[in-house]
Amino acid sequence: MVAKSKKAVAAAADIDIESAAVPGAMALFSPMSLDSFADFSRDTFAAVTKSNRALSEGLQAIGHEILAYATSSLESASQTATKLLGAKTFDEVIQLNSDLARAAIGTLVERSAKLSEMSVALASETFAPLGGRVEATLNKLTRTATV
């Protein structure tokens, strides 16, 4: 009955079902047994797990780096505030303030570069297992079409 309804719809739309299919599309996909599909899925799950582990460890390292930067910045600001309270002249206040700003900018640039390097390394470590699985998926599901 389903075949009749498909033919009826095709006839009503004046479409030939066989000619509507992409020629050679089914020739691109190779058959896969249940065991090979299970192995393939297991390998893909392992790659996703490895990718998630790398992401988690990388984000944790970046979090520790940010916390260390915040701690050192607060310590530096606290030391400068203590020195500012003991300043006797306005020139000394200006000098302490400019020293703090200069050190803060230098540290910011240094830590930003380090965080940038860590982020690039994190991205490459996270996507490496997945990239391998994309290639394996394409190799597994398709085969070279012979013309």
Describe this structure in words.
This protein has 147 residues and is mostly helical. The chain has one domain. The protein has five helices and no strands. Helix 4 packs antiparallel against helix 5. It is rod-shaped, with a radius of gyration of 31 Å. The two termini are 37 Å apart. The relative contact order is 0.13. About 5% of the residues have low confidence.
Beta fraction of the residues? under 5%
Counting H and I runs of at least 4 residues, what is the number of helices?
5
Oligomer: single chain
- Can you tell me the residue ranges where pLDDT is under 50 for at least 5 consecutive residues? 15-21
SSE order:
HHHHH
The beta-strand count equals 0
Task: Map the helices and strands.
Blueprint: H1 2-13, H2 17-20, H3 25-28, H4 34-85, H5 90-141
Helix pairs in contact: 4-5
How would you summarize this macromolecular structure in one to three sentences?
The chain is mainly α and 147 residues long.
